[in-house]
Queue: 3 jobs
Job 1
Amino acid sequence: MKKLFLTSLLIITALFTKALAQDCSFYFPTKVGTIVTTTYYDKKGKETSKLYQKVLDYKEGAGFQEVKVQNRTESKDSKDVPDSLLIHEFSIRCENGDFQINWDAYMGNTLDKYQGMDLEVNSENLSIPSKLTVGQTFPDAKIDISVTNQGVKLMTIHTVIKNRKVEAFEKLTTPAGTFDCVKLTSTTETKMAFIKVSASTAQWMAEGVGVVRTENYDKKGKLVSYSEITEIKE
């Protein structure tokens, strides 16, 4: 009887844990080995780079899901010749109903150029709640990065993502297929020394897939670049 009780308790606990994990709207694949290819283009539609995101590991528990991801970016120069290959690893987590995008994921390989230098990062993760409605807004997200080399402070990069809003729920078709997406918009302001850059972004995200398409606009509202998923391999 005692053994039966313990077995039943373990089954109930496992089901409860899985139910909590499923409360998350997870905007990324969870199957280990899945590779999502995103192609980047300039404003004229010319390919500039490809990003290969591979699921290395997946785990879930009471109220959370987490995947470990490897980013591999291949860039091209102005003559379409591959000129760089960057590899970067990070984790994506959904906890207590909030899908959390850490700054490692958001910045991608941007910080790789500072390899070998000392980086001090103070940040707030971006999060997306499971229950979304059109018109819903989210708090600003901030990151401050101080770059130091051999004891000499080179620069401080301050970035704020604000005006984060749910614009619509839309179907979006790319070379990888058709996806049910939530469209999110935001404004990003970055300040480095005396240089300040402001831009706006529209992103379409699908559960179990990730960012399906991104469009980047300058402060005048003109398209400067875009990207979209072009292949998914499991």
Job 2
Amino acid sequence: MHSKKENRQHQIRNTPFILLTLSVLLWIAGVATGEPARVLEQASQVCLSCIGIG
């Protein structure tokens, strides 16, 4: 039989892996929907308008 302390330590050790997996899945979803290209496009517009070209 496991004590509560052992169960809590096991849960704490799993938390980083769960968060890492969730982060990777969200990153993949963002890349699949074309977000990096959109962010780069917006950044270019902001930079060009800042210097008065765009």
Job 3
Amino acid sequence: MAKRLNNESTIGAVLQQIIQVNKLQPGMDQIDVKEAWENLMGNGVKTYTRNVVLKGSTLYVELGSAVLREELSHGKSKIVKMINEELGREVVKDVVLR
């Protein structure tokens, strides 16, 4: 049973408790990672990005350009680090570019 919050709780604390009690964190991570990808990669990469999916701790990115996929494959560890820094916690451990 979740602990009851008093009337002076912040909205953020109440929302965080709802997310924890209803086990919504994986879905929230999916949304956060997709937004972080779009913010960090910029319009050039976003144009060629077809799909971004987080499964577990692996980020799968479908790209429409083989050249871009090859270029980004050289910086996978940097991409992981940038996304995790953007989110403020370690969500992504690996990136698979398709």
